[in-house]
């Protein structure tokens, strides 16, 4: 159902409202007709997803989302299904009044929601309570109904957006429907792909409601879905010097594993050479486990300097620490002006000593690190991940990877890509170290910071999905190394 013409484009709620108004004002399609198309599309989706469903309950709110629900109920009843409507409010507005009148003319069964009432039984529930206009927590009555629906165990089809989810940001300020499937109309809303949205949306289908492509003319998408990417095949006469030299800096006392994962990921993703600047105590373990890494004991900036001169790209932060040793190496690395990837304590040090990057740079914060970089709180970052990522890119002059469910890649020029791959099994130690090495390797092989970040995030997440085929729980960062190599060569199938 997702139209190929705009299959990667993501829009804000206001942009979708503009498209809606254009359809009405410029194409002469009435709002009621759009509502009817949405209801018919949603009923088709319901029948395809649950072909055995014979009885449905539609939960209708007071706005146009509720109007979609009333019309779906009418169409379903006309098709011979058993239908009941549960109304959140009697005070409807806009075209929802006309939609309810259509339902009432069919002599359909309606109930007003009361918190002490039990919910009707059904094969499928349809969520048409709140649409994209809700940017606050649902009121107590609506929240209680949402919680009851979620606790029912009955599968839910959400219309346009799961009620309670902010379609612009992916944040849930209060109770929110947990749908098994969401059918969204006209265009893909950016907030359905990041933050809390992936746990609420379920399977997502987008339908343009038959609107022509000319409706989108002159409208720039706010963001894009990340596409599958890998490097082209190498020339037959390639040598290691053609593929860059990554210097991974980190591994303070007790954190040899972090810098090893970073370095090995850089090797597996095609860097020609990978050196490691680390504590002397880590050399034996690194040389024994991965002799291809050129590990060097570095006690301070002077010993790091010669390694910096030979490197083309830096990977700074895994296991670095924030003590005197880590700070000195971090400062020396930044002063070198080399292209770099900055993660972990490299970001925490940056939060204390802000620096705007002139050379190509990729910063890979999780929400907590992003909050420190912006001098705000983690909940504030998560309330609007798009705004946070864009502000970080602007402030630091770097490409930003804001990690988490639906990772965002933000360019200083305002572009954002959203990664829809990855899984909860990747919420384990070492995954970020791996990503740092992946992106550094791509930078070393000639990618721009923007392309290295986009490709690196995609390869990392897709490798995580391949590795999780044996189960998400217990997934290790090192389990991604083999899939990373395959995907980086365009050989894997995720």
UniProtKB/TrEMBL annotation:
The keyword Nuclease does not apply. Its EC number is 4.2.1.136, 5.1.99.6. Signal peptide: none annotated. The keyword NAD applies. It holds the Pfam family YjeF_N. Its cofactor is Mg(2+); K(+). K(+) binds at residues 65, 127, 163. (6S)-NADPHX binds at residues 64-68, 131-137, 160, 258, 319, 366, 433. Residues 16-217 form the YjeF N-terminal domain. Binds 1 potassium ion per subunit. Catalyzes the dehydration of the S-form of NAD(P)HX at the expense of ADP, which is converted to AMP. Together with NAD(P)HX epimerase, which catalyzes the epimerization of the S- and R-forms, the enzyme allows the repair of both epimers of NAD(P)HX, a damaged form of NAD(P)H that is a result of enzymatic or heat-dependent hydration. Bifunctional enzyme that catalyzes the epimerization of the S- and R-forms of NAD(P)HX and the dehydration of the S-form of NAD(P)HX at the expense of ADP, which is converted to AMP. This allows the repair of both epimers of NAD(P)HX, a damaged form of NAD(P)H that is a result of enzymatic or heat-dependent hydration. Homotetramer. This is Bifunctional NAD(P)H-hydrate repair enzyme. The gene is nnrD.
